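[job 0412] stage=fold_complex status=start
inputs:
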Amino acid sequence: MKISEVSTATGLSIDTLRFYEKIGLIDPPPRDGAGRRDYPDDVIGWIAFLGQLNATGMPQAERVRYAELRRQGAATYTARREMLEAHREVIRGKLVLMQETLALMDRKVAIYQKLESEEESHV
Amino acid sequence: MKISEVSTATGLSIDTLRFYEKIGLIDPPPRDGAGRRDYPDDVIGWIAFLGQLNATGMPQAERVRYAELRRQGAATYTARREMLEAHREVIRGKLVLMQETLALMDRKVAIYQKLESEEESHV
DNA sequence: CTAGGTGCTGGAGCATACTCCAGCTCAAGC
DNA sequence: GCTTGAGCTGGAGTATGCTCCAGCACCTAG
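[job 0412] stage=fold_complex status=done
writing structure:
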C-alpha cells in the first residue's frame, strides 16, 4: 500500500504516518524501486489498535514502548499483557469518572431548564 | 482562603491557579491588605466542576467560554445548558469507545495468556 | 529587627503531539 | 521530453496546557 492509501484508510495524515514511523510506533515499511514506502496491509489493523489506545488516553511514550515490545516477538508476551492489564485499569477508572460526569451533566441540564422556565415566567 | 489552601484543597498547583485566573477560568478573587488573593470558599466547588469537564475531555477554550457565560449570570442559562448538552453527547461517545476498548483489552489479555502458556509448554 | 516563608508580577520555558515547509527525486501521461 | 503529481528528507514551527524563574514585597516568629 502507498502512504496515501494508508492515510485515507486510517484517517491519519501522511505527515503523521511518517512521524509515527520516526518515533517507532509503526515499523519502517519496505520501499519500492523509487524509495517510496510500500506498507503491508496489516498496518491498517495495527494503526486502528494504536488509535484505540490513543483515544482511551494511553500516552505516546507508552504506545511506543508497546510497539517496541511487539517488535521483539514472543519473548515479550508477558510484558505486553501486563501493559494491557494496566491500561485496562486506567480505562475502568475513566469509565467511572465519565459515568459520574454524565450524571452530573444530566442534573445540571435539569437545573438550567428549571431556571430557564422561571426566567420566562416573570418576563 | 489563601492560594496555598485552595491549592491543597483542589490539587491544582499555585501556578496553575494563577494561570486559570489569567485565562478567565477562575474569577479574580478579592485581595487582602497586602495584595494577596483571598478566595471565596465556593471556588473549591467550581474548580472541582472544571476538573470534571477537563477529565472528560472538554478543551480549555470551551471551559473558558463556559466560565465567561457563568459570569454573565441568568441571561446565559440557555447557552450554558446547550454547552452541557453538547458535552454530554461527547461523553456518551467516549463511554462507548471506552467500553469497546475495555472489551478489546480483555480479549487481548486472554490471547496473550494463551500464548504465554503455549510458550511455557515447549520450553 | 532580621530571617524565613509566602505571595506577587511578567515573562520565559517546557512536554506532548503533531504539522508544515524547502528543496529534491522519480514516474507517467500527453 | 516535459510537466505534473506523489513522495522523500531534515528540520523548523505550532497549539495546548501548564511550569518555572527572577526579583521584589510583605508578614510573622524568635
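[job 0412] summary: Chain A touches chain B through 34 residues (CB under 8 Å).
[job 0412] exit 0
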